[in-house]
């Protein structure tokens, strides 16, 4: 890294230290001197020095190790409440005044001291001749002073809040400190001796160059944030903007976003509109008439069973079905009416036609459109919520979208039906290869299943379609041929969303919804 | 529609015909051929040759068996259907089946035949039983309109009688039991009696089949006799009968069985059924019988529907190769379905058979060329615009089931017994979780909130979608409307925060509104407003009641609003 880009990457603390040298590039400075001239806290300074050493901008000139004495927590405590040796001594002196006999146990219990502390103190005091041990385990003051106790008091006072070089103390003091400092195996002592490294520092060759460059960059104040004030008074010109570490991970945000499945359906919707389809809407609750009868599904059809369709509890029936549709559909079912069909040859139950159900197929929406004098030529679609009486599992939902519609026109026939499906394959599934298979739907003849080779999924069924039976169109007043088509897009949606369970299309997991990218 | 199990080697035998070497068929070729029967291969076991095939066409019961599939493929390969000579024997049958009076009100029709000379194999028996079950279940509407019985012919002395008897005066040992029981007992005890007894509910006399020695054959449509009504591998003489409520369906079902057994090499002997009452086919009905009526079609109708000029000869060729009998005049074909089919309702059915016989790949796709203008409905356009605004304001869209539970939609919202809590409920409930249509949007939002306490806050959710509101003025008893629901949940969620978003929405919708204090149990009293626009309440906004949050186990405050997009869209 060259010097100028190295300078750009410096932390403000490092800059401060380098600038301190700037005036005298060849100076050798002690840490204390640096601390004074930079005005940095010792911890900040030592961080900056370590960084600069690591970058080889700074080198150590000399390094001296000095033992440094400080008070431990115990030492602080002794300062306030006196050390065991002071307390034992004063206890024996008090006893001497009153003439009471004092046992070692008495001292322990009265002073609340540890036995080891008490016996240590007594041993030291006896050695100094400040007390005697007499018969019966009693201790007695000799009236003489204790050198140790006095030195201890002095040291506790001197060292409180101000650690010092061990060598600054007298020999006797040093001895007391050594005897009462924390050592391995004995942590309950008032003093601690640490080796203190004092370094004198100087700039390396690179450091000198960096310091000179820094001084040339004027002594711009560094700021972290551009503010309206800086802009207003133009002072940004003299500021240096701290460079960020841009490799850090960005904090997470939750944007406003469409639901990925809805986004997928929106795309489908847009495609259909672009192909000339007009949207249809319908009711979630339907009569069996529009849901099935109008689609020439006989009333005994297995798909109309109680195990396939949800029936409404209240009200159970619509009051009536609009004429002339009821009569015409009834005739078509029974004997074909005027549709050229033989019909299903059973007696049509008009009350059954009024039974209310939850819409079970999107084709119900198309049936309504056929009955409302649709445009000819005309193209219609709906993305309709439908309900099936199904056990819910990874591939079955009880509540799902059907994408379906119709195409009306004089030019509609089997080949234009295939042409339309080709268009869907290309536009909706981006598939170039298609297969048309014979299929069966109660309301279309001929019927086709559209299979496509999806770029990701391979061969898959994309949809079903056919020409509406005349038994469907004629009773609803439509005399031109009509294509009915439906697309099964859930599998494509699941691939686009990266999920394997159809229930996850309607997931309640906000994290999943937020993090799903959707179709790109 | 039915999914059946067949064996590849059985199919190959049937493709060749009885006594011939099997006609091997590759899997690719098989899948291609399945297009002729609208069949889809659902599974296979290469070791045993087992194939599982779904047949789509619910109007083609003749295809729901190995024999039927093989027949359709064979006809196509041969170019026409081989004659079945039992249909043309005009001479009187040596065997009769007499129907006794009284059955016309219960289960009026019966058809029967004898089949000899085919020794039943393991695979053949499995097919017979599967066909019997599938036809009775799906074509016979769970035996109501059609049921089938198979018997060992040798044990039966003709004439057979289709009788009407009292439940407690007739008894025999039914299949699956060791002891003699009366018909009444069978209805009460036998598994099939329990399953199908409903068909005969309320009858004081029951159908009963017996032979000339008064030996019991069966109690249709419930169960066969154990003595003569159990066909075993190795039997080479069978008696087949079909009873039911629709004569043409009964005859068709027998025709299918006769064709199937004949295809396996049996000689079919028709039986004359004598009725004491009138039937659509007279009082004496020979079964099996070809009921096909010819139908005249202009070739132009077919060509127009297919979008392809073919000419009468090509149409005739295609239909003949699909099993039809066809005669042509210059611009007209006269077609008759084979005796095992009855599904010709409309000329369009013939059109499809022409297309299938030629193969769909024979038709070149053509784009519909007429110009149409595409577009969205007013409500969808409006709702899309509102959704874009919500996204722009930082809300995450969600999407939910419309079918939910009354507990979530009403009870957990403290709406039980209120006008707000009225629901469109399902009568045939499968699961309480899916038993009512949502009447408002907030439970859908709470559903996500309740599951997402680990997702970082704040949560801003919305959904625009359909709900159903009970409405007696509508013929379907409810109105489907599109609502927008928005919800904010975080530690400091507050009424005014939601109010700001609502206010912004109304600004861009270019509608004015005011908030009026209302009572709504889902919200904290005094922190709930009705959103009134143009004198109509179009929504609510408020802080959700702590008890509601507690019921949903939500541990942060939530504020929400809901507006009726249908009402607002119609207005602008």
Summarize, please:
Chain A has 520 residues and is of the alpha+beta class. Helices cover 38% and strands 21% of the residues of chain A. Chain A is built from 21 helices and 18 strands.
Characterization of the model:
Chain A is α+β, with helices and mostly antiparallel strands. Chain A folds into three domains: 3-65 and 197-217, Orthogonal Bundle (Arc Repressor Mutant, subunit A), CATH 1.10.10.10; 73-189, Orthogonal Bundle (Arc Repressor Mutant, subunit A), CATH 1.10.10; 261-515, 2-Layer Sandwich (BirA Bifunctional Protein, domain 2), CATH 3.30.930.10. Chain A contains 21 helices and 18 strands. Chain A has helices at 3-8, 12-22, 31-38, 42-54, 73-81, 84-98, 104-111, 115-127, 147-159, 171-179, 205-216, 228-232, 260-274, 288-291, 325-334, 350-354, 363-371, 414-429, 470-473, 490-497, 510-515, and strands at 29-30, 58-71, 102-103, 131-134, 138-141, 164-165, 191-203, 221-223, 239-241, 278-279, 285-287, 356-358, 378-387, 399-408, 434-438, 444-454, 458-468, 482-487. Chain A has a seven-stranded mixed β-sheet with strand order 10-13-14-18-17-16-15, with helices on both faces. In chain A, α9 crosses α10 and α13 (260-274) crosses α20. By secondary structure, chain B is of the alpha+beta class. Chain B folds into four domains: 3-78, 2-Layer Sandwich (Phenylalanyl-tRNA Synthetase, Chain B, domain 1); 85-287, Phenylalanyl-tRNA Synthetase, Chain B, domain 3 (3-Layer(bba) Sandwich); 295-359, Phenylalanyl-tRNA Synthetase, Chain B, domain 1, CATH 3.30.56.10; 378-571, BirA Bifunctional Protein, domain 2 (2-Layer Sandwich), CATH 3.30.930. In chain B, 28% of the residues lie in helices and 27% in strands. Chain B is built from 16 helices and 28 strands. In chain B, α11 packs across α16 (565-571). Chain B is elongated, with a radius of gyration of 33 Å. The relative contact order of chain B is 0.08. The mean pLDDT of chain B is 94. At the A-B interface, α13, β10, β11, β13 and α18 of A face α8, α10, α11, β19 and β21 of B.
């Amino acid at each position: 890294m060259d010097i100028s880009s190295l300078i750009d990457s410096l932390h403000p603390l490092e800059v401060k230290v380098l600038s301190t040298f700037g005036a005298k590039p060849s100076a050798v400075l002690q840490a204390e001197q640096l601390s004074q001239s930079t005005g940095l806290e010792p911890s900040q300074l030592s961080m900056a020095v370590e960084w600069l050493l690591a970058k080889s901008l700074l080198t150590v000139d000399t390094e001296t190790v000095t033992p440094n004495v400080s008070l431990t927590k115990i030492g602080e405590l002794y300062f306030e409440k006196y050390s065991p040796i002071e307390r034992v001594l004063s206890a024996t002196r008090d006893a001497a005044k009153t003439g009471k006999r004092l046992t070692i146990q008495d001292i322990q219990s009265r002073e609340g001291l540890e036995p080891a502390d008490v016996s240590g103190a007594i041993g030291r005091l006896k050695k100094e001749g400040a007390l005697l041990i007499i018969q019966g385990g009693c201790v007695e003051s000799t009236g003489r002073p204790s050198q140790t106790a006095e030195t201890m008091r002095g040291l506790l006072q001197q060292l409180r809040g101000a650690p010092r070089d061990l060598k600054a103390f007298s020999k006797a003091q040093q001895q007391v400190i050594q005897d009462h400092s924390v050592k391995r195996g004995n942590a309950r002592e008032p003093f601690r001796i640490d080796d203190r490294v004092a370094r004198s520092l100087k700039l390396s060759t690179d450091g000198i160059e960096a310091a000179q460059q820094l001084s040339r960059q004027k002594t711009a104040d560094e700021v972290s944030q551009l503010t309206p004030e800086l802009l207003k008074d133009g002072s940004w010109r003299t500021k240096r903007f701290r460079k960020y570490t841009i490799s850090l991970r960005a904090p997470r945000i939750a944007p406003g976003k469409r639901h990925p499945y809805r986004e997928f359906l929106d795309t489908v919707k847009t495609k259909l509109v672009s192909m000339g389809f007009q949207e249809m809407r319908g009711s979630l609750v339907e009569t069996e008439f529009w849901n099935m009868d109008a689609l020439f599904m006989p009333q005994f059809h297995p798909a109309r069973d109680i195990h396939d369709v949800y029936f409404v509890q209240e009200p159970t029936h619509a009051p009536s079905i609009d004429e002339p549709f009821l009569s015409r559909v009834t005739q078509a079912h029974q004997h074909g009416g005027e549709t050229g069909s033989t019909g299903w040859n059973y007696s049509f139950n008009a009350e059954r036609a009024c039974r209310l159900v939850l819409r079970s197929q999107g084709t119900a929406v198309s049936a309504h459109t056929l009955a409302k004098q649709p445009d000819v030529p005309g193209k219609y679609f709906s993305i309709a919520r439908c309900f099936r009486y199904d056990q819910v599992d990874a591939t079955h939902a009880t509540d799902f979208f059907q994408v379906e519609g119709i195409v009306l026109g004089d030019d509609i026939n089997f080949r234009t039906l295939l042409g339309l499906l080709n268009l869907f394959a290309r536009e909706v599934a981006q598939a170039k290869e298609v297969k048309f298979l014979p299929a069966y739907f109660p309301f279309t003849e001929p019927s086709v299943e559209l299979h496509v080779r999806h770029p990701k999924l391979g061969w898959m069924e994309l949809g079903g379609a056919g020409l509406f039976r005349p038994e469907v169109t004629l009773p609803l007043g439509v005399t031109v041929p009509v294509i009915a088509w439906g697309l099964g897009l859930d599998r494509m949606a699941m691939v686009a969303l990266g999920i394997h369970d159809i229930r996850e299309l309607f997931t309640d997991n906000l994290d999943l919804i937020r993090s799903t990218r959707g179709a790109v | 529609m039915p999914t059946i199990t067949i064996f590849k080697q059985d199919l190959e035998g049937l493709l060749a015909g009885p006594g011939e070497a099997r006609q091997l068929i590759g899997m690719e070729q098989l899948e291609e051929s399945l297009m002729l029967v609208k069949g889809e291969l659902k599974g296979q076991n290469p070791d045993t040759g087992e194939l599982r095939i779904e047949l789509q066409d619910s109007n083609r019961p003749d295809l729901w068996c190995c024999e039927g599939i093989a027949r359709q493929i064979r006809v196509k390969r041969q170019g026409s259907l081989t004659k079945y000579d039992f249909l043309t024997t005009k001479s009187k049958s040596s065997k009769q089946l007499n129907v006794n009076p009284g059955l016309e009100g219960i289960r009026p029709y019966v058809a029967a035949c004898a089949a000899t000379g085919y020794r039943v194999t393991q695979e053949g028996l499995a097919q017979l039983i599967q066909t019997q079950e599938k036809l009775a279940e799906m074509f016979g509407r769970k035996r109501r309109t059609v049921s089938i019985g198979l018997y060992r012919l040798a044990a039966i002395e003709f004439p057979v009688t289709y009788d009407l008897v009292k439940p407690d005066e007739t008894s025999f040992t039914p299949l699956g039991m060791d002891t003699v029981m009366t018909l009444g007992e069978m209805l009460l005890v036998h598994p099939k009696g329990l399953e199908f007894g409903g068909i005969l509910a309320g009858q004081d006399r029951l159908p009963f089949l017996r032979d000339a020695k008064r030996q019991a054959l069966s109690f249709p449509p419930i169960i066969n006799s154990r003595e003569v009504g159990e066909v075993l591998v190795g039997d080479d003489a069978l008696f087949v009968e079909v009873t039911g409520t629709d004569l043409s369906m009964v005859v068709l079902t027998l025709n299918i069985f006769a064709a199937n057994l004949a295809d396996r090499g049996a000689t079919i002997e028709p039986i004359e059924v004598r009725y004491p009452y009138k039937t659509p086919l007279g009082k004496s009905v020979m079964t099996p019988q070809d009921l096909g009526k010819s139908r005249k079609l202009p070739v132009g109708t077919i060509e127009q529907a297919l979008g392809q000029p073919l000419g009468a000869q090509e149409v005739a060729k295609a239909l003949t190769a699909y099993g039809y009998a066809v005669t042509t005049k210059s611009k007209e074909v006269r077609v008759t379905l084979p005796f095992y089919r009855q599904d010709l309702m409309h000329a369009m059915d013939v059109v499809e058979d022409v297309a299938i016989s030629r193969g769909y790949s024979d038709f070149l796709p053509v784009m519909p060329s007429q110009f149409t203008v595409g577009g969205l409905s007013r409500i969808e356009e409006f709702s899309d615009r509102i959704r874009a605004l919500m996204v722009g304001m930082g809300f995450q869209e969600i999407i939910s089931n419309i079918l939910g539970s009354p507990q979530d939609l009403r009870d957990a919202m403290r709406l039980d017994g209120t006008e707000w809590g009225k629901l469109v409920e399902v009568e045939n409930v499968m699961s309480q979780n899916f038993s009512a249509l949502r009447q408002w949007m907030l439970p859908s939002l709470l559903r996500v909130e309740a599951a997402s306490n680990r997702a970082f806050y704040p949560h801003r959710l919305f959904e625009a979608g359909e709900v159903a509101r009970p409405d007696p003025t509508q013929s379907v008893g409810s109105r489907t409307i599109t609502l927008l629901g928005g919800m904010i949940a975080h530690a400091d969620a507050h009424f005014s925060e939601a109010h700001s978003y609502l206010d912004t929405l109304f600004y861009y919708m270019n509608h004015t509104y005011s908030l009026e204090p209302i009572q709504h149990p889902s919200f904290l009293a005094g922190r709930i407003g009705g959103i009134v626009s143009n004198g109509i309440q179009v929504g609510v906004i408020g802080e959700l009641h702590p008890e509601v949050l507690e019921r949903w186990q939500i541990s942060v405050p939530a504020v929400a609003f809901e507006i009726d997009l249908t009402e607002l869209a119609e207005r602008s």
